[in-house]
Hints:
single chain, 239 residues, alpha/beta, Rossmann fold, 7-stranded mixed beta sheet, 7 helices, Class_I_gatase-like, protease
Amino acid sequence: MSRNLLLISTSTTHGTGYLEHAEAEIKKLLEGKKSILFIPYARPGGISHNDYTAKARKAFAQWGISLTGVQEYDDAVKAVREAEAVFIGGGNTFVLLRQLYQNKLVEPLRERVRQGMPYMGTSAGTNVAGKTIGTTNDMPIVHVKTFDALQLVPFNINPHFLDPDPSSTHMGETRDTRIAEFHHHNRQPVVGLREGSMLRVQGDKIQLLGPHPARVFLQTGKPMEFKASEDLNFLMEAY
């Protein structure tokens, strides 16, 4: 597969504007491209597709990239098949995946990525790039017929990964605990992406970018920490 992906934990980090922390990597991903198709289905906070698109359009305009929302086309499938690149924004992962299936975009997106079309996601848009959405942090506010996601990579991702706070008196489950529960029923690895971090995937090569290490969970063994300089390519050979 000729993957060309940028999978970002979050669209905004503390003290930065929308997508600002990932600007350099976005420009590399979209080098030579003049336009990008935005899929706003995740609707953070329930905002309209058009309002969400306007927010994304403003950011990309600064970089000389023309952005249009998929909802602006009469034929969403045709829009994906003709897009130079695709960006799926964050919000609620269940709402996003349901809309992708309802609008019959799952297979066209997989096909275009296999052909080498650049794909970038933030938060929910990163979640759906994985094998399933079973490790999202979002509430299941709508019903989806399947948790099977775009499967652009053969593992799951947990964006916004948070480490336990040793000074906290909260007795609820940590992210580590929840992912361990996931692995009682599922085999695929899970990558915990901390805020400001992202995965750059080119073909069968994967690179961690950003200021923080990633926490990798396997079904067997203890979680492992990987720095940006360390090899994560084994994830591309997962189940």
